[in-house]
Amino acid sequence: AQKVTQAQTEISVVEKEDVTLDCVYETRDTTYYLFWYKQPPSGELVFLIRRNSFDEQNEISGRYSWNFQKSTSSFNFTITASQVVDSAVYFCALSGEAGGSYIPTFGRGTSLIVHP
Amino acid sequence: SQTIHQWPATLVQPVGSPLSLECTVEGTSNPNLYWYRQAAGRGLQLLFYSVGIGQISSEVPQNLSASRPQDRQFILSSKKLLLSDSGFYLCAWSFRDRYNEQFFGPGTRLTVL
Can you tell me the distance from the alpha carbon of A22 to that of A68, in angstroms, rounded to the nearest whole number? Predict the structure, then answer.
């Protein structure tokens, strides 16, 4: 079985602060993929990034960056200089053979509130 | 480019009434299709997924059913709604290959009274 844990239920920051959203996963697969999604108040989940288990390079996209560490089974997401528009629920997910490779396992999400 | 449509956006139904939610995908062929429900508390619950026409897998036993009458059409139905069916329903698609990211529709907010 596979599992994704997002221990932070809710994070509240003030605009321009940096914030890191934690994601810890469990899987017995050697090949797996990790994902992050954003769900703004409108409700539609938006895909942000996919990372495979053989690529531990960190990724940066504008103010967003992702830190994948297999040694700690973590795939953390950092937003630099947060903005009010970053307020959303963020989901981490995992796809691997153990869970059925077509079916991702989602964490319960972290609600990020950015205050002006 | 691909787009996913889902309707209606909101729905208020009495207990015991039927339900039909529709989802269609444009711009791709042979997608994997998924129905999720998101109740209060934010967690995503996978209800059904489909890897082809007429192929439906159910993840959670309940009074809901799904059908895929066409390659890019996915329908969620119920003969008699329960109060517990209230929630936010999301349709999603992914490319046929394994381990792909999912692309979600705008969702349907269902309230059963």
Answer: 11
**Paired tokens of B90:** 């999301």
Structure confidence by residue, pLDDT tens digits, A16-65: 999 999 999 999 988 899 999 999 999 999 999 999 999 888 888 999 99
**Partner-chain contact B102 A103, CB within 8 Å:** no
Roughly how many angstroms between the first and final C-alpha of chain B, as a whole number? 39
Could you give the CA distance from residue A26 to residue B45 in angstroms, rounded to a whole number?
A: 19
The predicted pLDDT at position B99 comes to 76
- Identify residue B60 by its one-letter amino acid code: V
Q: Strand pairing partners for B32?
A: B94
Pairing status of strand B55-58 against strand B64-70: unpaired
Scanning A76-105 for CB atoms below 8 A from B yields: 89, 91, 95-96, 101-104
